[in-house]
Structure formats: structure tokens, C-alpha cells
């Protein structure tokens, strides 16, 4: 069942055991996809381990931690029409890459396909799945699944050309909710984002992560996206909502401080979304306010 339509891109940093497990699972897929790994300056022997255990994997070593921009670097080397992202602690289920490529083949206006996420070792659905399945974003009748306002990079297959045309991940956002800006720009370029319940990716959350730093980056990046793309009224409402609901702690204060300090470049790059894309985002606001999976309170 070799399928040459999709390349898998993985970014990693100091998670050698998790990455090797992911590469083992990807090597077992019937699609036998090409795999590109960007090693974001790991110091735990990741690069040598990949070269030894998975010599067919293309390994990129930029020499510094690029965060999500490591995906941009990898996509420069992609020659297939579709690119699938996964993290070093997640892997695609057999047949799901081919299933996503079938959808993208069949629906030329779809730019991204996001899969159902099962959390290992128990195989339970990630809480975000219910929100994806019940997305309130208005959808055209022809769309094969729920319309989304954003996507999860670790569980999504995209059109390679659409990713490149939209500019990939913004270099300033690094990691933590970095998908929201790219998703909005893809929608502004005319692409639809959808969820496919019959496709699956497995996520075995790594214990090697700084949850507090990731939360701070998530708050900061949400503010930057809001100020970069939303009209003044919605941007103000979203900012005030975050200010009211995030924890009163050092991480939140740092996030707001970093976001505010960056206002000069944010204003230089500000480009308000087309009305039809803004309408999709407004339809998500009630769900975002009530969401536990998307909150920054933990």
C-alpha cells in the first residue's frame, strides 16, 4: 500500500526515546511515507540515534532550536503534494495518511485535514476531539466534515503548496498555539480547514516538557494573533477575556509583557482578515469561552 502523496515532518528537541518510538511506528505504516526530522539542537544524542536506527529518515540539523519554524525548514525539502505533521511523541495510525490524501485529492478547496487524537497509553480521545467534531464554524454543503477555524499541527495533513504560499509558521511565535495565525492566513487565501473523524493519530504525551513555559507562549501567541489579524472590536474583547481568565501568576504576567513589548512589529505586520474569515472566527467565540481543552488556566 505504498503511498507517495504525503511526506511526514517531525520536529524534536531532546526527546530521543520518544522520537525513536515515533519513527518506529511511522516505519511500520503501510503507506511507507518519506519522513523528515528537524532536530532543534538536541544535546541528548538524538541526531546520532536517528542516523543509526533510521537511516532512511532525512535528518536536518539547523544548529539551533527553531521551534515550529523547524517545520518550515523541513517543508523546503518536501516534494510531495501533501505534508503531514506529527510531534516526536505522536504517530499516525495505519491508513490515515492515505485517507487524508484521498480527501485532499477529492476536495480541491480543502487545505487541511485534521485527524482524531487518541491519548496513549489508554487510547482515550483527547478532550479537544469533541470540540473539533462539534465545531460551530458554518460549512458549505460539500465539505466532507466539520469546518474548523484552526488546526492542530501534530494531527494535520496540509497541501504543501498552500502551506508555502501562506508563509508557514511565523518565526516570532516559536511554539504554543502557533497554528492559529497560519490557519487564519490559509483561510484568507481561500482554503477550507476540516476535521475527519475516521482518521487517527496517537499521542503519548512526553514527560519532558515545560508546561508553564508552553502556557506562557500560548497566551502571548494568542494575543499576537488577535492583534495581527482581528478587527479592533473582536481584538479588544478577546484581549479583555484573556486578561480576566488567565491565572494571576508570573507566567501570565510575562506573556502579557512580551506581547505588549512587541506591539511595534505587530502593528507593522497587522493585516485584518477578510470579513468571511472573521465571521468564521466569531462563530467560535462562545465555544472558546467555554472550552476546557483550549483554556490557559492550567
Automatic annotation (TrEMBL):
The keyword Glycosyltransferase applies. Its EC number is 2.4.-.-. Signal peptide: none annotated. It comes from the Bacteria. Residues 7-131 form the Glycosyltransferase 2-like domain. One of its GO terms (molecular function) is glycosyltransferase activity. Transmembrane segments: none annotated. Keywords: Glycosyltransferase, Transferase. The keyword Glycosyltransferase applies. InterPro entries: Glyco_trans_2-like (IPR001173), Glycosyltransf_2 (IPR050834), Nucleotide-diphossugar_trans (IPR029044). PANTHER family: GLYCOSYLTRANSFERASE, GLYCOSYLTRANSFERASE EPSE-RELATED. Belongs to the glycosyltransferase 2 family. This is Glycosyltransferase. The lineage of its organism: Bacteria, Bacillati, Actinomycetota, Actinomycetes, Kitasatosporales.
Amino acid at each position: 500500500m505504498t503511498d507517495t502523496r504525503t511526506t511526514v515532518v517531525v520536529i524534536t528537541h531532546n526527546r530521543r526515546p520518544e522520537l525513536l518510538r515515533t519513527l518506529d511506528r511511522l516505519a511500520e505504516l503501510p503507506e511507507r511515507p518519506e519522513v523528515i526530522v528537524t532536530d532543534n539542537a538536541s544535546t541528548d544524542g538524538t541526531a546520532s540515534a536517528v542516523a543509526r536506527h533510521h537511516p532512511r529518515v532525512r535528518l536536518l540539523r539547523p544548529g539551533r532550536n527553531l521551534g515550529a519554524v523547524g517545520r518550515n525548514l523541513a517543508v523546503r525539502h518536501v516534494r510531495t503534494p501533501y505534508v503531514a505533521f506529527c510531534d516526536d511523541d505522536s504517530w499516525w495510525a495505519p491508513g490515515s495518511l492515505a485517507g487524508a490524501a484521498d480527501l485532499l485529492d477529492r476536495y480541491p478547496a480543502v487545505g487541511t485535514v485534521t485527524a482524531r487524537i487518541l491519548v496513549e497509553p489508554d487510547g482515550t480521545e483527547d478532550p479537544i476531539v469533541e470540540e473539533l467534531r462539534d465545531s460551530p464554524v458554518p460549512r458549505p454543503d460539500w465539505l466532507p466534515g466539520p469546518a474548523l477555524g484552526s488546526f492542530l499541527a501534530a494531527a494535520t495533513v496540509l497541501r504543501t503548496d498552500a502551506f508555502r504560499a501562506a508563509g508557514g509558521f511565523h518565526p516570532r511565535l516559536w511554539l504554543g498555539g502557533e497554528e492559529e495565525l497560519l490557519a487564519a492566513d490559509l483561510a484568507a487565501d481561500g482554503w477550507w480547514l476540516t476535521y475527519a473523524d475516521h482518521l487517527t493519530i496517537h499521542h503519548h504525551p512526553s514527560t519532558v516538557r515545560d508546561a508553564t513555559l508552553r502556557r506562557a507562549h500560548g497566551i502571548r501567541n494568542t494575543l499576537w494573533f488577535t492583534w495581527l489579524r482581528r478587527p479592533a472590536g473582536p481584538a479588544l474583547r478577546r484581549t479583555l477575556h484573556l486578561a480576566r481568565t488567565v491565572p494571576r501568576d508570573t507566567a501570565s504576567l510575562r506573556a502579557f509583557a512580551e506581547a505588549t513589548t512587541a506591539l511595534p512589529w505587530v502593528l507593522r505586520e497587522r493585516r485584518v482578515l477578510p470579513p468571511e474569515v472573521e465571521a468564521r472566527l466569531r462563530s467560535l467565540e462562545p465555544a472558546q469561552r467555554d472550552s476546557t481543552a483550549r483554556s490557559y488556566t492550567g
